[in-house]
Amino acid sequence: MEININRSFLLRLLRLCWCTLLLGVALQWQTYAQAPVKKYTVKDGKMFIELSKQISTATLDSFLVQFNLTDVGLHQYFKTQSADSLTQQGWRLEQNNNQIVVFSKPLMVFGDIKDPVDRIIFSGKDGADLSLFPVINQHVVFGSNRFKNKKFFPEKDSVVTFYLRNALQARKVFLAGSFNRWVPDNLPMTKTDSGWVARVPLQAGKHWYKFVVDGNWNIDTDNQLRENDGRGNVNSVYYKTNTVFRLPGYTNAKRVYLAGSFNNWKERDLLMNKTARGWELPLFLTQGTHIYKYIVDGDWHHDPTNPETVPNEHNSVNSILRVGKPRLFKLEGYTSAKQVFLAGSFNNWRDFELPMRKTATGWELPYSIGPGNHAYKFKVDGKWILDPANPLKVGNPEGSGNSYLIISPNHTFRLKNFAKAREVFVAGDFNNWDPKALLMKREGNDWVFNVHLPAGKNRYKFIVDGEWIIDPNNKLWEQNEHQTGNSIIWVEQ
């Protein structure tokens, strides 16, 4: 009995030391016989999970279900003793010995949220995956794939066939990535005579992935596109394309490149692939209007197969491609004007590029534009004018203002119980923190504004009669360089 007491005492001391180092708080422990450790703690902006190495499968299942952690990958850890799957999901191995294992994960500050269960559940939805692996088209204008030793992944009916060459000695291979939240064991790959394959339905855009070979996480060594997620993990990158650029002929050319507004006209960025009939390059392009040209052995050419062109600054033309449904921009009146152009943030304010078509009552131009917040103006015979049909305006450096168009608003900012305020603006990452751009509308005692927010993390503040404040009704915030804090909202796909 004395030996059991001493052993229990030593374990208690060790556990108290670990808790002091990892959690900074005293945890209550039972002396003598103890059940397997299964604890969570939230402290100093982090969530900690502490588990006994002797925990049973049934007890672990109950713990994971209770706190909505079934997709964390702890079963995989206890099975393989490899923390790769947890690391992929943002967890850090803090302590690992013969008795316990402790993992931590950053958690946003929630102020008044006191219930640790709520914090655990919120952590699963706090956007950590979005921060590391934003959804398919967040800030991604274009993308192309670069493989060696194998061709692009085959695709049919939006289903992409991922394949891993060789690894024929492996017992099990799984595919994991941003498209399944990095769960390491729910996309099994099928063995073939030359490797492993898995078919996944994907939307057009950017995706991150790895192969899990007998429990070990591996990048795709045949894929030259790789990115570090900022936490020490390197992942392979794949673009599900939605456009194929084809240039017929020029079979004697040595090199052909594609350049356009989507890649800032970089001349040697997008090398095209030679085919029997010419040159081609599959590309992902975000929704909107894109201007482009081909560069054949140093000479620029517009697309001979595309009749749609726009003028450029070199007294020539560029080819134009629209992705998505066009929006009709209209300017009523000005029927005596000689020429009218449309320009805005969507085309870098190139005021010579988008001539409008004259109609019986004014001017119009169909133009594809993606979801977002867009500033624009019309240029009538050299004079800039606002859109008289659009009451929404934003400021500009010249002080004349720009018309403002919000496509597909996905969030309503609401500042509650500020009835005495004279005017309220909202500003944040989404509008470069312009304090006079987005004037909110009074709605009873509240102020509201509908806006399109990009997926992922968005920081913002309200400006109430000239004073910057965080959102008093949003418990999620972070410190800024001015030590005044910014409110945070996460937008999922």
TrEMBL record:
GO MF = protein kinase binding; starch binding
Note the CDD domains from the entry. E_set_AMPKbeta_like_N
Q: Which domain of life is it from?
A: Bacteria
Which ranges form a coiled coil? Answer: none
Start and end residues of each Rhodanese domain: 158-191
One annotated Gene Ontology cellular component of this protein: nucleotide-activated protein kinase complex
- Report the record's Gene Ontology biological process terms: signal transduction
Do you know which InterPro entries this protein is assigned to? AMPK1_CBM (IPR032640), CBM20 (IPR002044), CRP1_MDG1_kinase (IPR050827), Ig-like_fold (IPR013783), Ig_E-set (IPR014756), Rhodanese-like_dom (IPR001763)
The similarity annotation says: Belongs to the 5'-AMP-activated protein kinase beta subunit family.
Stated name of the protein: Rhodanese domain-containing protein
Gene source species:
Rufibacter hautae
